[in-house]
């Protein structure tokens, strides 16, 4: 069994078979909490080791981003009318509107009204868990989790991001939904629609946590933001927003970097917005003012934005990330990002907090998996595949790009053949892995260390890990059509596989057997994350 090791020798071993109860214990009252907006009624659940914990599912942290609030900054939620808001999860909140290209076959799902978060609180006290730490505080550290999904998909449902594994430790977990795709990241490049709405949703959720987490037993001075994939990139972006000072004290980026090409702001967001408008049937999209354009887009049926997404991809079989961060004008009120992430990070213009980051050996498989569904292999196929590959890598305008890729990743010119096939999957995975994950992470760490040393910020250590544990289950079975015989092949440790050991996902994977290696890895890894959240 291989073990991932940190700079400090920390084993990345995780998992545990989960036994969950969402019902109310007969002899116990349900958990109740009152915050500024009103009182909440939650429910009891059980961790994988049978520990009871509190769950408040579907708490609104912003007004519904519909009507005039579509393509606008989020607005804090008002007091609710109910004496006690039902956050038991009996009436599940829909995910943000999306078409998850990473999970083929799911189609269009979700709603615009989606700005909700979940709070889970362990019943274990810090004194019970941290008997070796000299502290009398019972306030718990909090981890705020930002899901991945390429800024266009993702879920906070306890059926996918269940808290049961983390709740075996003394911690509070907050999972945050934020606007995706056009709704979260469309921009006209000016004040009409400044963009970064999804990132501003995350920012507002962090403000909510800072203001309210004490009511749940949390310490507002012990908040860690943690994200995976685009969520990991979002963590870096939140570190670059200096207005977040004081909202979090540690940061964790799992397999995601803001310096990756898929997170790089596009140079002409207005052009993209007008293209979007044309795709959803707005007449005169190329000639109207940006203000008129945004008003017209607010009147379009929300589902059309998702259903017409294929108009951006030019037939690409690789997941193409169209929307993402935008550089806003300095004149924009409460702007989130006024320079490129690459410039801000390289200059050290960030919040210097303890930061943990790392990757998986085959993160790139999430982008290469669609090649396994490629059946046509004619003379023209390689040229088409080459174009699609370079479009995703954003290297289509570099005439030397493909020869350089062949020279670096293929042993000789004939190893490609007439087209990329299943036999090339590991090479294509390596290309995406290096371009989208390893290189931007390495650059991020190098630059962070340089400015940390230069600024003598000794309180902001950087920790680098690689997760090397391969268990019984893998997200490769999700990314590849399950009916495809190739799914039985070993694709290694692929993108999202570490999530198997952090969160319970009963709609996707079976629970680990108690005492199994997977279960031991899960418990060890979650403890490692919680220890970092507590101590940095």
Please give a structural write-up.
This protein has about 525 residues and is an alpha/beta fold. The chain is about 30% helix and about 15% strand. The chain has helices at about 125-130, 180-185, 195-210, 230-240, 270-280, 290-300, 300-305, 340-345, 365-370, 380-395, 400-410, 425-455, 475-480, 515-535; strands at about 30-35, 40, 45, 50-60, 85, 100, 110, 115-120, 140-145, 170-175, 220-230, 250-255, 355-360, 460-465. A 9-stranded mixed sheet has the order 3-4-8-10-9-11-12-13-14, with helices on both faces. It has a 3-stranded mixed sheet with strand order 1-2-5, with no helix packed on it. Strands 6-7 form a two-stranded antiparallel ribbon. A hairpin with a 5-residue loop joins strand 3 and strand 4. Helix 5 (about 270-280) crosses helix 6. The longest helix is centred in the C-terminal third of the chain and has 31 residues, at about 425-455. The radius of gyration is 23 Å and the shape is globular. It starts with about 30 loop residues before the first strand and ends with a helix.
